[in-house]
Amino acid sequence: MIKDIQIGKFTIGEGHAPFCIAEMSGNHNQSLERALEIVDAAAATGAHALKLQTYTADTITMDVRNEYFTIEDPNSLWAGKNLYDLYQEAYTPWEWHEPIFNRAREHGMEVFSTPFDDTAVDFLETLGVNAYKVASFENTDHPLIRKIASKGKPIIMSTGAASVQDISESVKVMRDAGCEDIILLKCTSTYPATPENSNLNTIPVMREVFNCHIGLSDHTMGVGSPIAATALGARVIEKHFTLRRADGGVDSAFSLEPEEFKTMVIETERAFLAMGKVQFNVQEVEKKSLKFKRSIFIEKDIQPGEPFTTENIRVIRPGYGLEPKFFDLVLGRQASKNLKRGQPLTWDDLI
Q1: Which uninterrupted H or E stretch holds 157?
Q2: DSSP alpha helices (H): ranges in the chain?
Q3: Would you state the pLDDT for residue 314?
Q4: What's 284-349's CATH class?
Q5: N or C: which end of the chain has fewer CB within 10 A?
Q6: Domain 10-55+91-275 CATH assignment equals 3.20.20.70
């Protein structure tokens, strides 16, 4: 049994519905007002947490104009963009963090961030974060992971673009640095991702291999993958969140709108509750429904001593008579008394 993890007032564990994280990323479109609107909208959906990304263009890359710093994949949402320019467009100014954190906390949400360098970790500590996120593209950055782990907070790490060995090594770094509260997120690092390359059946295997709670960082459209992941044991769900995809923004194309995120929160909880336990027998809540099952009834009036035939008895709803499995046994037996059409047949009615 993997122990529960506490992040603020929220508990992550086998006996708890998924912890749903709304990832703002760069969908604020460089407007603090819009960022705060996103916080309000996320809270209204029932999101348990809001997550930011803490970096600047200079802390995450270099301002260099060559082929190494240009996104060349023609299928990428950011095809042709220079990395420095992209991150300059997407980053959340550090001076915005405090008002965003305060707004989220006013709503009772947990709020934390993904730091991308040591200075970001130190900065987030001043804001009193209760957890950290490690992004897929940083999940092999051992110095950064060690720095985060040294803070003694739970770590949620995405596992996109990583091998089993990569993940194992990073988990070891965390544990060696004293962090035992680790949550790994199954993640496919394409933007957007497709259901076909999500491979959610990996989730229960990850749980066994790494002996920690598993979640999903999902870049597919819609909420089908999070619901399926919940059924497979995911206890954290992270999705990018925006007010409206039509508003644009670096991550808007694969972000959920408020109505969709609300549906995800509701349906993942329902999926969790529906999993229940192994159950074969009639449940207590079903007992009242037994009367609506089929049973043997009198089809035609029957005199005492008259044999039961396919003409004078039949199997119908409701379930007040003998069970249908006794039908062949009853045929040919004699009635013990007068029986009226519409009367359920009981053992007392047979000689």
Answers
A1: strand 155-158
A2: 32-45, 57-60, 83-90, 94-106, 118-126, 142-149, 164-176, 202-210, 224-231, 258-275, 327-330
A3: 98
A4: alpha beta
A5: N
A6: yes
